[in-house]
Automatic annotation (TrEMBL), chain A:
GO terms for cellular component: plasma membrane. Keywords: ATP-binding, Nucleotide-binding, Transport. Pfam families: ABC_tran (PF00005), BCA_ABC_TP_C (PF12399). GO terms for biological process: D-alanine transmembrane transport; L-alanine transport; L-isoleucine import across plasma membrane; L-valine import across plasma membrane. It comes from Heliophilum fasciatum. PANTHER family: AMINO ACID ABC TRANSPORTER ATP-BINDING PROTEIN, CONSERVED COMPONENT OF ABC TRANSPORTER FOR NATURAL AMINO ACIDS-RELATED. It comes from the Bacteria. CDD domains: ABC_Mj1267_LivG_branched. This is Amino acid/amide ABC transporter ATP-binding protein 1 (HAAT family). The keyword Secreted does not apply. PROSITE patterns: ABC_TRANSPORTER_2. One of its GO terms (molecular function) is ATP binding. The keyword Transcription does not apply. Residues 4-252 form the ABC transporter domain.
UniProtKB/TrEMBL annotation, chain B:
This is Amino acid/amide ABC transporter membrane protein 2 (HAAT family). It is a multi-pass membrane protein. It is found in: Cell membrane. One of its GO terms (molecular function) is branched-chain amino acid transmembrane transporter activity. It holds the Pfam family BPD_transp_2. The keyword Membrane applies.
Automatic annotation (TrEMBL), chain C:
It is found in: Cell membrane. InterPro entries: ABC_BtuC-like (IPR037294), ABC_transp_permease (IPR001851), BCAA_transport_permease (IPR052157). Keywords: Amino-acid transport, Cell inner membrane, Cell membrane, Membrane, Transmembrane, Transmembrane helix, Transport. One of its GO terms (molecular function) is L-leucine transmembrane transporter activity. The chain crosses the membrane at residues 12-38, 58-78, 90-115, 135-156, 192-215, 227-247, 267-286. Belongs to the binding-protein-dependent transport system permease family. LivHM subfamily. CDD domains: TM_PBP1_LivH_like. This is Amino acid/amide ABC transporter membrane protein 1 (HAAT family). The keyword Transmembrane applies. PANTHER family: BRANCHED-CHAIN AMINO ACID TRANSPORT SYSTEM PERMEASE PROTEIN LIVH, HIGH-AFFINITY BRANCHED-CHAIN AMINO ACID TRANSPORT SYSTEM PERMEASE PROTEIN LIVH. It is a multi-pass membrane protein.
Length: 260, 328, 293
């Protein structure tokens, strides 16, 4: 069954076409990679999918319903969550609170019961904390739940961002360079974690990544973006031998491009 | 570890506050506390309300508003009209003043909160001035001469319990999922929005809550000082309130309260040198921004755990400096 | 119709003052993205320097020049002491510092010269020119204001477009980092911007003293805020925009005073600001900028 379908999606800034006529389809439960050289428009695609930017043309449908024109928070409620290339945590909130923000939309109590500290408030907060701690356990961050997000080491900040996105219980998870800045061991752990999350949460994942080892290792299907256009689509094996892709990467040996 | 309302520290705190309330009441009745101290005590309470209310907007939500005195003016005038002209009881007047200010906050907030940073600051300043000019042009409330002879209904009971209630309400809001949504907007607006926080809604809520309590402070002010004029609520007043919040630490209620107390006491000392007071105020602000731009407390809050940690540290039992959600 | 033309002339004189102040706001904002709240108070200091010089028997032009030089130095000092270290700080911290500097100048002014209103010496005995059989009156002071403003505006255009420092200013305002890499001394350029902007504000201060005859330490607050409105209306960072914005605001205010009530004048400026901010935040001559995600 098709979860996400992107039709003829375009976005221009002034005269510059950052994304042009992109078509994509994601089936339920797939793990798909979106790769391409720097400046190819990958993050712009994510910004379009999450409503941060409005498309100039084209349509995005989640479970056959268009989400174009919705605000980012509405799109999040429909089931798309993401991480950011440059980490965007809530720095002065604790690790647990960062995750609890994602449960906000399902909050069971209103402002009045928060202010009057009615029983509903305590129950609601307890529920959120419990769910949050469960999730942090999966991401091995439970022991740091009361630390401020800004005090975490880099790798843990990346993990927390994924945990936070997961907390929104999305159907589609968008990961924007989750392994950026990680060492090989951290990257390997991250790969395991992504696989594990996907199997256990029955989730569809679309990820942008420069680390080809990671992309080729875990993705079932790959889209290649260059100058805002999809130039290839296929399995990792097909992509590796695709002439256009190799040209886009300027003859770099694709299995070794950007990183280990 | 279930946190409950009737926990031991909460009860202790309540007891402490009640003792303070009772002792002060006795002092006022018996004349141990003279008019001068009374005036400053009341000013401290009003300033605490103003500071924590502006902190909801500027500190918690990170939306930079510098027109807070405008909402105070609406509370002051609204409530004064209720008691003076329409003969309503003080309690009703307080509610009308605060709700009136909240409505103004809502009306101002919806169009302006689309703006960011500097532009928002200037727009709120503009709205503050517009509110003042509108009041200036209403003959019914005395125009430039203002309203005189407002009954002095603001007494210790009202001001004490309303100050405590204000702090408690705002603290409870801040530590709920709704307050966290506001803080998330401050911390990273785009991330908050993509994590499902309706940012427009929460900005407007924060603005409305802030305006509500500014209106309450204005109503208490009007019914203590007998007289109000449009000039009382000009940009200078907004600036005063801003200084409380910035010095205390944007986002820290504890900081706002401490700096409201400290600066009110400081102005009382400098009362005879009004000009010098402004020089010191402004220098203080510049120096704090240059040396410690996050303010006295940063975003940290007073907490019982923090006090315990501090005690450990001071008595040498601690395991080195903790990194601190606590009192500094 | 006579009211309209009379108010148009009054408005252009007032608008010239706003325009001169707005130029400084817009230049500083263009180069370091700072709303220099203290700018209106530099204008106040300019008025006082002019006041001092003319009471010492100086003529109008020497007093004007002295005031511009003194304020140019003042502007650079303020930038070096208060703003320079905050160039990488959050915008809010910088804005608060600017508000602090503004209040510092005002309160120091009160300490130094007292809060009372001073009467500016009568450097130009007023001459009234009657146009259309006396239906419209133009004074020689209004002419001086408009002529001086236009000359300064032309001088500024020359500096910005034809001189080396002007090129540096444009480069830094376009991209400070790239300008630095190209060998431009960013610190000096920012200083020069403050100097020029402050000198223009000082000129406005002296002109206002000549026009209205009365000055006080708080005189900078309202014109400062309104000049900022003018800069935003014209598109902040855009020099001709500030000029046009200033003149338009002066004319609108004069028309509101002429046809309605002068009590509403202040509200009109801010209402205009809010409308512009909401409808076209980049101002009449500005271009839009986006935040990068």
């Amino acid at each position: 069954m098709i979860l996400l379908s992107v039709n003829h999606l375009s976005k221009s800034f002034g005269g510059l076409k950052a994304v042009s006529a992109v078509n994509m389809e994601l089936r339920m439960g797939e793990l798909v990679g979106l790769i391409g050289p720097n400046g190819a428009g990958k993050t712009t695609v994510f910004n379009l999918l999450t409503g941060v930017y409005q498309p100039t043309e084209g349509d995005i449908a989640l479970r056959r319903q268009s989400i174009v024109g919705l605000k980012p928070w509405q799109i999040n409620q429909r089931g798309i969550a993401r991480t950011f290339q440059n980490i965007r945590l809530f720095n002065n909130l604790t690790v647990l609170e960062n995750v609890k923000i994602a449960y906000h939309q399902h909050a069971s109590y209103g402002i009045a019961s928060a202010i009057l500290r009615l029983p509903g408030f305590y129950k609601g907060e307890d529920d959120m904390s419990q769910k949050g701690i469960e999730l942090l356990k999966i991401f091995k961050l439970e022991h740091k739940k009361d630390e401020l997000a800004k005090n975490l080491p880099y790798g843990e900040q990346r993990r927390l961002e994924i945990a936070r996105a997961m907390a929104a219980q999305p159907q589609l998870l968008l990961l924007d360079e989750p392994a950026a800045g990680m060492n090989p061991q951290e990257t390997a752990e991250l790969m395991d974690m992504i696989r594990w999350v996907r199997q256990n949460f029955d989730m569809t994942i679309l990820l942008i990544e420069h680390d080809m080892a990671l992309v080729m290792g875990i993705c079932e299907r790959i889209y290649v973006l260059d100058y805002g256009q999809i130039i290839a689509e296929g399995t990792p094996a097909e992509i590796k031998s695709n002439r256009k892709v190799i040209e886009a990467y300027l003859g770099e040996d694709i299995s070794h491009a950007h990183g280990s | 570890m279930k946190k409950m309302f009737f926990s031991l520290p909460n009860l202790l705190m309540a007891l402490l506050l009640l003792a303070f309330y009772g002792l002060t009441y006795a002092g006022l009745e018996q004349g141990w506390i003279d008019d001068y101290y009374k005036l400053n005590l009341f000013l401290i309470c009003i300033n605490i309300i103003l500071a924590v209310s502006l902190n909801v907007i500027n500190g918690m939500t990170g939306q930079f508003s510098i027109g807070h005195a405008g909402f105070m003016a609406i509370g002051a005038y609204g409530s004064a009209v209720m008691t003076m002209k329409l003969g309503f009881p003080f309690g009703a007047a307080l509610i009308v003043g605060a709700v009136g200010a909240a409505l103004a906050g809502l009306i101002v907030g919806i169009p302006t909160l689309r703006l960011k940073g500097d532009y928002l600051a200037i727009a709120t300043l503009g709205f503050g001035e517009i509110i003042r000019v509108i009041i200036l042009n209403i003959e019914y409330v005395g125009g430039a001469a203002g309203l005189n002879g407002i009954a002095q209904y603001t007494n210790w009971h009202w001001i004490f319990f309303l100050t405590v209630a204000t702090v408690l309400v705002i603290k409870n809001f801040m530590t709920s999922t709704h307050g966290r949504a506001c803080i998330a907007i401050r911390e990273n607006e785009i991330a908050a929005e993509t994590m499902g926080v309706d940012i427009t809604r929460y900005k407007v809520i924060a603005f409305t809550i802030g305006a509500f309590f500014a209106g309450l402070a204005g109503a208490l002010h009007a019914h203590y000082f007998y007289t109000i004029q449009p000039t009382t609520f000009g940009f200078m007043k907004s600036f005063d309130i801003l200084v409380f919040v910035v010095l205390g630490g944007l986002g820290s209620l504890t900081g706002s309260i401490l700096s409201a107390i400290g600066l009110t006491v400081l102005s009382a000392f400098l009362q005879d040198y009004a000009e010098l007071r402004m020089v010191i105020y402004s220098l203080l602000l510049i120096i704090v921004m240059l040396v410690r731009p996050q303010g006295l407390m940063g975003t940290a809050e007073f907490s019982y755990r923090g006090v315990a940690k501090l005690y450990d540290r001071l008595s040498g039992k601690g395991r080195g400096p903790g990194n601190d959600t606590a009192v500094g | 119709m006579e009211v309209f033309f009379q108010q148009l002339i009054n408005g252009l004189s007032l608008g010239s003052i706003y325009a001169l102040i707005a130029l400084g706001y817009t230049m500083v904002y263009g180069i370091i993205r700072l709303i220099n709240f203290a700018h209106g108070d530099v204008y106040m200091v300019g008025a006082y320097v002019g006041f001092w010089a003319t009471t010492q028997g100086w003529g109008f032009l020497p007093a004007l020049l002295l005031s511009m030089v003194v304020c140019a130095v003042l502007g650079m000092v303020i930038e070096r002491l208060a703003y320079k270290r905050l160039r990488e700080a959050p915008r809010i911290a910088v804005l608060i510092t600017a508000i602090g500097v503004s209040f510092f100048l005002e309160s120091t002014g009160v300490l130094a010269v007292g809060a009372k209103v001073r009467t500016f010496p009568n450097v130009f005995p007023e001459v009234k020119f009657q146009l259309f059989n006396g239906a419209i009156v133009v004074t020689n002071r209004q002419l001086v204001i408009m002529v001086v403003t236009v000359l300064l505006m032309l001088l500024l255009q020359y500096i910005v477009h034809r001189t080396k420092i002007g090129k540096a200013m444009r480069a830094v305002s376009h991209d400070a980092q790239a300008a630095m890499l190209m060998g431009i001394n960013v610190n000096n350029t920012v200083s020069a911007t403050f100097a020029i902007g402050s000198a223009l504000a000082a000129a406005a201060g002296v002109l206002v003293g000549v026009y209205y005859n009365a000055i006080n330490p708080y005189m900078g607050i309202m014109p400062g805020l309104k000049a900022f409105v003018a800069a935003v209306v014209g598109g902040i960072g855009v020099i001709p925009g500030a000029f046009v914005g200033g003149l338009s605001l002066g004319v609108i205010e004069a028309l509101v005073s002429g046809y309605g009530s002068s009590l509403w004048r202040d509200a009109v400026a801010f209402a205009l600001l809010i409308i512009i901010l909401i409808v076209k935040p980049s101002g009449l001559f500005g271009s839009n900028a986006r935040e990068k995600v």
